[in-house]
Design a protein that fits this description.
The chain is built from 7 helices and 9 strands. By secondary structure, it is α/β, with parallel strands linked by helices. The protein has 2 domains: 159 residues, Zincin-like (2-Layer Sandwich); 79 residues.
Length: 257
Amino acid sequence: MSSLSTSQTLTKQTKLRMPQQKTTTLQAMPLEGFHKTLEHHAGRPLKMRINDNHSTMLSVRWEPDHTRVSLHRMFLNAPTNVMEALACYLKGNNRSLTPTLKQYIEQCRQQLDYSSAINPTELSHQGRYYHLLDLYNEVNEEYFEGRVKLHITWFGQPQSRNRSRISFGLYHDTLRLIKINRVLDHPNIPRFLITYVIYHEMLHHICPPNVDGEGIHRIHNREFKQREMEFRYYQHAVEWIRQNKVNLFAGVTNGRT
């Protein structure tokens, strides 16, 4: 999941997109054979569960005499190099995910689509001042020729007080779902700011994250940042956030624009 946030202490880092390691996908291994193979290479008993989670792809707990592991079904298709890295991780000698594992998980996540689990009738489009779906459609037509197929909804409460961080928007990649904070549904919030947030979250689908050779997760990579600056009111939006940051944390209804 990715988000566009602002905080009282803002830092910027330049993140370069590095070439991803390419792997060859194998035919899915039968579950029993997968378990035995992984257990053999890990060198310790495994209590394993295969899941279809929307977010957590790998969860491990090391016990004195065994390892409990919950794996997404994607690992049944893992190539040899990923299986070897996974087995090494499950041994518990080094409890940090290797770049190989991180890259495989990220590449597979981008192919997952659980959007059918969303009930469209439960999505909230009409706000008090802004209609999200109308704004989304406008952004989609202007910048993506109407080709991006995502869901969108409001989330949160219309006021946000005494917080050090606010997430303007979120993107749930496996659900193909954009969520926009209701704090932006206010007459003091300019239209260009909301459309900028929507555009930003749509870019997470167009320019998905990558994991570089060092295992660093690049969410806002170079391509993302370049595309983001193509938004018509990019500088206006960034400057508005800078000038109104204090008002947002105090409660948008008390802010002045």
